[in-house]
Task: inverse folding
């Protein structure tokens, strides 16, 4: 039920002596103060339990060819306070319903010399603050170009931060944990190689930025509703520990083309002394517009396998032939080309995956490398790289469509664009129509390599406009989108729930590119996942990649149980069992968890969490009494403990616990695990030792009948 | 009939002592010599009647990240000579059939250190040379980026040139006539203002470049078949009088993204001691691929009027309302907006033009300003500026479509893109389909303002790729295209004859923007028109623009007869009678020529020509015995004289001669003209005084019967 109470306050500032506006969160723990500093510079402060979290910080924007810009000389002409309290139902999610409750302060400012107005709107939730700039339609502020947004976040201390280098093109980095003051020194080391990367400052980092103060306060800076604007990075003033927004430029260095009426995205600061509040916060979604898709029954969570990992590891290839130096679509004759013998997306192999999916209850099979053009697919600034509709000679679209259908399995389409965005847009309608005509309703898209047109980056306004265009057009075709290498999500999926996933961070593939830090997955939910789910593609059972490809010496820095846990800890409506079928066959008992785990939830409870160290979460499957618990552990071995108090009282459940063996270690002994079944009630106390880079996964079901409980111990 | 003789010569260069290759034109007057200079640098020389026209000039390309580039260290591995002689029939043109006759030399070069090959292909016609680089598919030259093409044209003297400033975005300049050595000094003056312009050097000029040597030789440098490559400018080494190719860069300064197999466009050098040979040369078309459109009956020359000049002069507006600071498509409510009362594209006004067209036998009516978005249509870097399908409230698409049809008149569509190229491509299919559904089969497109994406220019490879995409897609829809502000044509219309026009030079509108030089139209056929027709939109009868709009003090620097002559001298399959109907009503007798003149031809004879001074041409209407003669005159008054020897022998014709009155002058007395009818035969000698900025137009018809000749004098 929606309760909307509006309290309007009119402050008439005849003499400009009323400066401070205050906003309190619903539970009173957070306070935001807005005021105009000397020279009419807008400023805000964020206070948690009476202590500054964000010290007085300036707001404003620098405009091109505008000496005044929107930086100062403002006066408050109006303020309006209101409260909002509503509950909405997402199409998919960690929880069944989401409460949207905030107190809002709308401040209208007038710049005296230029007589133009902006509005800064603040929404204070229990878990944090969101605010944005709004530019009402007016003669004196019509078209304008942003040279830089100058939103500050003045930190109250030299916090510990979990950061990745500021980069206009990728977020595929391991996180560095350091003091803010150490960021610039450690940047060089943090900047591992990537196919497309563009740094801007050794003091630059990306959002969302997770921090912890010395006195145990968790702070996160991010943005929400990034639409038709440039993506925000943060640049640190090391001396004063002030972060300032740093937008992604276009090829002329401009940072935003605006036409009033318009708004900036929301800038968010989440604060809590409990790390779990950060993980469970729905601020980012709540700041986005409600769902714009009228009919959403075609949007469905997906558990899938795929012809993918064998290419990522180098065991097979996306390309069909090695015969030519390069290929030109429409000119190269693939039918007569000599196959390289390693092309994985062939009829027989795809059918093998379809069979596997059908046997084990997976919804779909992703196939990469099915379409012509992979022979020289990146690094060449190639424009007409793919056409998204023409298969290789050994991939029969209709035959596989029909075969999959006969097995009750869907195929997931793959649209690698190689960053050639114009080429993708030219083919988009044809490509989407082809999908519908051939039984595909979900597509994984990719933007590997430099964006074409030259001069644009993955995170510039121009390219963000493209991602949005592809999502909205997909919705018209009733197509779900999982966009890799695109901009990190910022809650857009509330408005367009057909955006069921993104990568936009360092995913499982990097375990095959040399490995990721073993605690990587204890950081991601605090950073990348705050804006939307990640297609992390977990479920790797064979950690020694040289066993798939002798030339690849990578090691997956995770125990097998840590991999199982990811299906719970890395929330996503799209979950892949990424390994090869034969590896699942080898560990069929552990694989059972992946088969059982749900991908959509009625409830989620974050049990314990510390960024970089561990996360434990319990989730209740949608429309069911089943629970799934997952723990991922960082580099320090530890014992994780909790009570099953989220279960229904007076009921017995069977818990199947997949845990690290006592000698497990992500590096030296990753595949050592134990499986045990116990009976649990809502009083049961659980305790489990976790290996370095380890974890555990638990599936909890109601017994079908009393006989199921026979022989099982009760966990007290 | 096609005669193809291949003579293959294999030169095996064991010791590298055979250096020079020679190629002669079919009539022997032109000789091209190719050789390798010291260091294996390819070089060519062009000789006309035993004198150097192009002194030894280097060939090659500088590549990115390639220290060797393709500049030297070559050896000749093969040469092949051949002859081609064929006749083809254009869909529309100055002549019914075009002979394509050349001698060809194909030179294969191998770069020794890198072991990669390029081919330079030379074709020597009677009127000039064409050559291009070819990059065969090979491992050692696969993907490469051009930093600069280094094709030189070493001039044999300090010629007089007719040039416009080198500019990546526009050709809309008056021509400057000067010595080559004076170009840099005069550049500043030549650089008149334009909405989008990007200069690169005071020694830079554009193609085609027309020159005349001190000893009366006419020389022209241009390019042909500009497809998937960057547009070439010329940069002059003033000291040595060597022009070098200067390609248009992208936002990173790169000049071309190439993938073998591929070619550069053809670079052309036309030479003759007779200026008329330059005008009548078909080299540019002959170097293009044959027509790729299978069925061309839908491609038809068009004579049209339009709702346009009244906006250009400022009398009316494209925009519908002045109510808002700016508009946003899909958000702004035009139906409730207050009309500004000056919107010309309204139902009543369009019907007036349809009636006028029907009454006077015009094929079509162009209407600009019919679709929403004109309120802030340029200068704002606006992406979603037009949707190409939504009309203003006072323009009823269906009503006007039906009205035009009932009058036997077509409407010409208008797609102003404002340079927002991605937006145009996103809407292109919808826009073209809308045209077909509403009876439009021709579109005038425009690219006013800066190209979006930012960093691209009108003449960069990326944007040229777009123009080609729009043309080829239009052909799929059976739509004819007249692209304004696009790259200058380079003979592409042989391959895609649905490209019936471009502007891409300073057109008639500039007479309303302050005026053009009175001899402008005596230069354009030597420069801009060599690559394809120009939609010059002539036919202005009221030279004092303040009579249309008191705030516009421009004066059309042309006599009325010069305007009539343009329908003959400025060849185009698309000809507009651009003025307002009321001005034609006022001079109905002169207007008769415009009504009578053909737009498609079986034959054309250039009678006399001097760049910057005068052009006289006679053309025979397609499928008819009618002839039309036009003369445009420059600043110097003169008497033009010729014999009607192109008429059939032993026949009498009636010639209607529209000529400057004896006191006419483009500035002081432009509307003074005489009309007289005489009888002519193929022995008749014609002589006519021409005013400054004047000229004459003659229509010649066979008499319907002997009575028509009564009372008319015979011109002896």
Result:
């Amino acid at each position: 039920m929606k309760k909307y109470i509006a309290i309007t306050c009119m402050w008439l500032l005849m003499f400009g002596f009323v400066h401070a506006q205050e906003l309190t969160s619903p539970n009173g723990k957070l306070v935001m103060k807005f005021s105009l500093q000397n020279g009419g510079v807008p400023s805000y402060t964020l206070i948690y339990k009476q202590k500054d979290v964000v010290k007085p910080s300036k707001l404003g924007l620098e405009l091109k060819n505008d000496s005044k810009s929107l930086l100062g000389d403002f006066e408050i002409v109006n303020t309006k306070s209101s409260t909002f309290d509503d509950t909405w139902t997402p199409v998919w999610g960690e929880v069944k319903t989401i409460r949207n409750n905030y107190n809002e302060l709308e401040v209208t400012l007038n710049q005296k010399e230029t007589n133009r107005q902006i509005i800064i709107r603040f929404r204070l939730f229990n878990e944090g603050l969101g605010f944005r700039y709004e530019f009402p339609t007016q003669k004196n502020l019509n078209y304008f170009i942003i040279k830089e947004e100058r939103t500050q976040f003045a930190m109250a201390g030299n916090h510990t931060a979990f950061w990745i280098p500021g980069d206009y093109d990728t977020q595929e980095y391991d996180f560095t944990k350091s003091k803010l003051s150490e960021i610039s020194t450690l940047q060089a080391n943090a900047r591992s190689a990537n196919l497309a990367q563009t740094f801007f400052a050794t003091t630059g980092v990306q959002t969302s930025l997770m921090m912890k103060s010395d006195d145990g306060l968790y702070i996160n800076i991010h943005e929400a509703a990034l639409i038709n604007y440039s993506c925000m990075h943060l640049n640190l003033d090391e001396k004063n520990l002030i972060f300032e927004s740093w937008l992604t430029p276009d090829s002329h260095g401009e940072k935003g083309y605006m036409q009033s009426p318009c708004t900036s995205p929301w800038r968010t600061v989440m604060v809590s002394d409990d790390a779990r509040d950060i993980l469970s916060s729905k601020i980012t979604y709540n700041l986005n517009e409600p769902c714009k898709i009228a009919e959403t029954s075609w949007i469905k969570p997906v558990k899938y396998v795929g012809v993918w990992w064998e290419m990522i590891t180098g065991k097979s290839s996306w390309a069909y032939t090695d015969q030519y130096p390069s290929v030109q679509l429409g000119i190269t004759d693939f039918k007569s080309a000599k196959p390289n013998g390693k092309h994985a997306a062939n009829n027989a192999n795809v059918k093998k995956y379809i069979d596997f999916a059908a046997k084990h209850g997976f919804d779909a099979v992703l196939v990469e490398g099915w379409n012509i053009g992979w022979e020289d697919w990146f690094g060449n600034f190639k424009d007409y790289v793919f056409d998204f509709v023409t298969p290789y000679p050994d991939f029969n679209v209709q035959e596989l469509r029909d075969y999959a259908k006969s097995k009750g399995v869907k195929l997931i389409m793959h649209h690698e664009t190689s960053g050639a965005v114009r080429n993708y847009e030219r083919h988009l309608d044809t490509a989407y129509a082809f999908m519908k005509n051939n039984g595909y309703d979900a597509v994984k898209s990719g933007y590997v390599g430099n964006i074409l047109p030259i001069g644009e980056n993955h995170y510039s306004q121009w390219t963000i406009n493209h991602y949005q265009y592809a999502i909205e057009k997909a919705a018209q075709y009733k197509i779900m989108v999982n966009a890799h290498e695109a901009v990190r999500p910022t809650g857009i999926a509330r408005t367009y729930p057909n955006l069921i996933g993104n990568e936009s961070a360092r995913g499982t593939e990097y375990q095959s590119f040399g490995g990721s830090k073993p605690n990587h997955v204890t950081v991601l939910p605090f950073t990348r996942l705050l804006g939307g789910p990640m297609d992390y593609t977990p479920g790797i059972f064979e950690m020694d990649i040289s066993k798939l490809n002798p030339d690849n010496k990578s090691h997956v820095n995770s125990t097998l149980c840590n991999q199982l846990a990811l299906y719970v800890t890395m929330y996503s409506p799209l979950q892949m069992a990424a390994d090869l079928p034969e590896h699942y066959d080898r560990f069929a008992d552990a694989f059972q968890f992946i088969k059982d785990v749900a991908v959509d939830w009625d409830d989620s409870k974050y049990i314990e969490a510390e960024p970089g160290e561990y996360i434990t979460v319990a989730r209740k499957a949608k429309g069911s009494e089943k629970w799934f618990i997952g723990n991922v552990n960082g580099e320090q071995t530890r014992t994780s403990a909790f009570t099953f108090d989220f279960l229904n009282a007076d009921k017995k459940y069977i818990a199947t616990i997949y845990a690290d063996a006592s000698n497990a270690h992500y590096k030296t002994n990753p595949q050592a695990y134990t499986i045990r079944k116990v009976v649990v009630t809502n009083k049961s106390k659980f305790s489990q030792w976790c290996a370095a880079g380890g974890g555990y996964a638990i599936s909890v079901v109601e017994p079908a009948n009393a006989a199921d409980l026979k022989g099982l111990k009760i966990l007290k």
Chain B touches chain A through 34 residues (CB under 8 Å).
